[in-house]
Specification:
The protein is an alpha/beta fold. Helix content is 33%, strand content 18%. It has one domain (4-344): Arginase, Chain A, CATH 3.40.800. It contains 10 helices and 12 strands. Strands 1-5-2-6-11-10-7-8-9 form a 9-stranded parallel β-sheet, sandwiched between helices. A 3-stranded antiparallel β-sheet has the order 3-4-12. Helix 9 (292-302) links the parallel strand 10 (265-270) and strand 11. The protein is globular and about 55 Å long.
Length: 347
């Protein structure tokens, strides 16, 4: 599979986002944490955090509905922004971890839903790559809400290209119950929710030792696993997490990727990494996944690293009648974006 079309674009045509004339498919709703709502057509400003969403779920294997995940996450986030405004800036102690933190005021802009082409995964990948390349210039940290995992390939490709043009490297870490390293779908072709990591590995000059996986716990192809291990790709699967702890395993993964791509990291979080008892709102029923408490540790750990972009995908609110999955994701983003963790305060 060739992805050369991405790199046949010249420096200027990467900014071709305005050529995708169709309106977004979904309604983005309120800004994340009540943030200022903008569009790509608005004046080019620089924010601490830029947020966008790609509500594409046309290659779902089981249940369509991840297209509505971004809206549900934004709505769930409003409760946390209310907490922040009522507390003002204050010192906090995390009783789960013993860490001391402080609420932090960051400039956040939410650019809402980007374009969606539900009948064409190829067109979707092209449009998302162009639009996310424009998003990279709008914030020092980029948060992308999905949608299904297909979107991670064009999103990563766009962020990586922006960094390449600045002479910098970018590694990829996937927090997921699966590897998503499929070659081809008989239904959807090269671009589908189970091929995103493979497509990333095929980008020009991308090496497998610049890719890290953590959380994998499903039954997987033994030959594929052997190939990934032999290639130098970092894997911290569910059994390893049980042995050393989630936070340690995540740091090991990030450290290994940074050793080969030192300038920045792109992190992709598939919510099905969580056990279904913790996060039922997703298309895949995960048995033996990480806990909600472990997922929330991600916020603390990522603050220790030069993370350039984070995507969170596969939240399907139609599979969760009380909204716990969207609330967990909103809580993760709250602790990642709006609280600075200083260090241990007690044992």
């Amino acid at each position: 599979m060739s992805t050369n079309w991405l790199y046949s674009l010249n420096r200027n045509s990467w900014r071709s986002w305005h050529t995708y004339a169709l309106p977004p498919w979904c309604t983005s709703g309120p800004g994340l944490f009540g943030a200022k709502s903008l569009t790509l057509a608005d004046e080019d400003e620089d924010f601490d955090v830029a947020v966008c969403s790609v509500c594409f779920d046309s290659t779902a294997s089981t249940h369509i509905g991840a297209r509505d995940g971004p809206l549900s996450i934004r709505r769930a986030s409003l409760g946390f922004s209310t907490q922040l405004s009522s507390r003002k800036l204050t010192e906090l102690t995390n009783l789960r971890t013993g860490l001391l933190g402080a609420t932090h005021s960051r400039s956040i802009a939410d650019f809402g839903d980007l374009r969606v082409f539900p009948s064409s995964p190829q067109r979707q990948v092209e449009a998302t790559a162009a639009e996310v390349f424009e998003m990279v210039h709008r914030g020092r940290l980029l948060i992308i809400l999905g949608g299904e995992h297909t979107i991670s390939f064009p999103c990563f490709a766009a962020v990586r290209e922006a960094m390449r043009q600045a002479g910098k490297s970018l590694g990829y870490v996937q927090i997921d119950h699966h590897f998503d390293f499929g070659e081809h779908s008989i239904l959807h072709g090269a671009y589908y929710h189970g091929s995103n990591a493979r497509r990333i590995s095929e980008l020009p000059d991308m090496r497998l030792d610049q890719i890290g996986f953590i959380g994998q716990g499903d039954i997987t192809d033994s030959r594929q696993l052997a190939m990934l291990n032999k290639s130098g790709c970092t894997i911290r699967h569910r059994r390893h997490i049980r042995e050393v702890g989630y936070a340690t395993a995540l740091r090991q993964t990030l450290d290994a990727v940074r050793a080969t791509a030192s300038d920045g990291v792109y992190v992709s979080i598939d919510i099905d990494v969580c056990d279904n008892s913790a996060a039922p709102g997703t298309g895949h029923v995960t048995i033996g996944g990480i806990t909600a408490d472990e997922l929330l540790m991600t916020a603390m750990v990522l603050q220790e690293y030069p993370v350039r972009a984070v995507d969170i995908v596969e939240v399907n609110p139609h599979r969760d009648d009380i909204g716990r999955t969207s609330a967990i994701v909103a809580r993760l983003l709250y602790e990642m974006l709006l609280i600075d963790w200083a260090g241990p305060s007690f044992e």
